[in-house]
Specification:
By secondary structure, the chain is mainly alpha-helical. It contains 4 helices and 3 strands.
């Protein structure tokens, strides 16, 4: 992997996700740590100490930039929801709402990331990868549309 390549992708996704977002919480971390694990799901590491650092865990393959951006955007959404401190344990009955919001946050960020990648790629000659990011996003949206259809959620609500 190119030296610093993952950091460039993460920084671009952070900018894409936060573009136009006003942070008003007084509990946001002052630092982010992003760590790649070779197995397990992406997550926020809830630290027992009183650290001011949010710790994001991602699980990607070599140069899997779309997946990295998507996972990071999702976990960054949890950070913005203040679910990065030790007492932020996910629980029913409302965890699904935060999950839906951070998923939308990540998918929203992928759109400007794709456009920006096409216009000014982080790696020389890699403009076309912007289309791959857009397709990755579209595939996720299609899966959600299929799920909604299978659950009868796309019918006219007035009937």
């Amino acid at each position: 992997m190119l030296e610093g390549a993952a950091a460039q992708v993460i920084e671009r996704m952070r900018q894409a996700c936060l573009d136009g977002v006003r942070l008003v919480s007084d509990r946001q971390p002052t630092r982010l740590r992003i760590e790649e694990h070779t197995s397990g799901p992406p997550a926020i590491w809830l630290q027992a100490d009183q650290s001011d650092m949010a710790w994001v865990i991602v699980d990607i393959g070599e140069r899997d930039w779309s997946k990295l951006a998507y996972q990071f955007g999702h976990e960054l959404g949890h950070v913005l929801a203040n679910s990065w401190q030790a007492n932020a344990k996910p629980a029913a009955p409302c965890q699904w709402l935060e999950e839906a919001m951070v998923e939308a946050f990540s998918l929203r960020g992928l759109r400007p990331l794709a456009t920006g990648w096409k216009d000014i790629p982080p790696f020389a000659g890699d403009n076309a990868f912007g289309d791959a990011i857009a397709k990755y996003r579209q595939n996720i949206l299609h899966r959600y549309a299929g799920l909604a259809e299978s659950q009868g959620l796309t019918r006219d609500a007035t009937t």
